[in-house]
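QA checklist item 7 of 12: single-chain prediction sanity check.
[x] sequence parsed
[x] length recorded as 236
[x] structure emitted
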Amino acid sequence: MFLRRLLLLLITGVLVFAAGAHAGFNAVPLPYTPTGAQALVPPLPIPPLAEIAPTGDVNDVVAYWNANADTLTELFADEARAKALFAMYIVHVAVPYGETTPPPYTLAEYVGRDRAHCGVYTFVQREISQALGLTVRGYEFVDGYHGWLEAEINGAWEIFDSTGNVWISQPMSALLRGEARDYRMFYTPVLDDDAPAVYHAHLSEGYNVPAFRARLPFLGLEPGVTFPAFQPLSVA
């Protein structure tokens, strides 16, 4: 009986990993292995951005990183990637998705705001990433459908999308060519039933962050699905 249970667990584990890795894509392994087709990662032990930098001073974010660098790097396996994931994560969980006027394009403006969209997330994420010493670049689809950040990690570009809190091991150009990729979908309040209602309000306003978040890792792999060209992110 024990051997049969063990065999069943092993088979289940292989099937689950195969689904999460999406046809074997596992180019950049992390301590977190996929637990299903969405490669979900549970909430991380990181305090809210408003607690890390209550006045919006990016130096406070850098100080928090420096004080916790060993622990955070251990979570993400690689220091450069850990910095980029940290910047993505704290920006995403800080402010609910939605239109905001005027948009806050700096961390000082961002902390305490009640809404943000992809352009806002990306600009604040870039400020934090650069303060941590990373080389980054922002892109958007030409039709304005979405904007995101890519960071240079060990000589290669990777996507760190703070709108959906998703990491992908390739840049957008490689995704649209259908190249192999690995991905992780980090915790997001928009899928948390216990999160405040404001994190779900965008669904009634015509936006669907969960749908985009679920689709992003597979761009270029879906038969018959095309996306417009992309360009450097601009402030609009």
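[x] summary fact logged: The chain has one domain: 2-232.
[ ] second reviewer sign-off
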